[in-house]
Every structure is written in structure tokens, then in C-alpha cells.
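Trying the structure run again after the queue cleared.
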Amino acid sequence: MDHEALAREMQDLRRQVTGITDTAVAAADGLLIAADTAASIEPEGLAALAAAGLGLARRTTDATDRGVLRRTVTYGSHGCAAFYAVGDTALMVVLGDEGVDVDRLNAAVLPALDRIESILTGTTRTSHSTSARM
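Done. C-alpha cells:
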């Protein structure tokens, strides 16, 4: 796996969307793969919680016949935590402050998810559409 390419993707998201404070990529089982987080965030714990939350959201989506889970967003008084499925085996966590524009965040993350999945699997995708995730 190309750790530098993964770090670039996470840093690019921060540059593209004002208000992103932290990012992490984890395996679906909650093991941390990479993190770009503040010292106040414990990345391994964040990865484990995100995997549990994403798993619950996937089950809810299945049980309610809502299709394939794309993302889940939790809002708090100081911002939000967005969890995105990266294929079937990984997830991305993006934390944002109170001012983050979640629509802009989603628009920026969707194309990055395909690139991150390619980095994680070591494959190259050609012209893969993200419209199915939106």
C-alpha cells in the first residue's frame, strides 16, 4: 500500500473543504490504517468507534431496504463526524468544525473514496463513476 498517496488524499481533502479538522482511514473491523488527526484525538479509538457506527448504519440500511450505505453523519454542538464506506473493507472518517459545509464535504469526499479504495487494494480504476454513491 502506498502510504504517501493515502496521506496526500487526506491532506487534499483538508485543503479542499474549509472546516475539516481531522481525517482517518480504517479497516471495516476498526483497525487504523492511517490518520491525520489532532493530538486531542486518539486515532485508534476513533477508528474502532467509526467501524462500529458504520456497521450499525449498514445493518439499519439493509433492514430498512434503503440500498447500499454511502455515508452517515453525526452532528454535535462543536461540529460533525462523517463516516464513509470505502468499498466493503474499509471506511473513512472526516471530522469537521461547526462551519464545515457538509454538502461540499460530500462532494469532495466522493471522488476521493474511489482513489482511496484503489490505494488500499493496489488496483487502478478507469473512469469509475461515483454517482451510485451520491
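The first helix runs from residue 3 to 16. Worth checking whether this holds up in the mutant runs.
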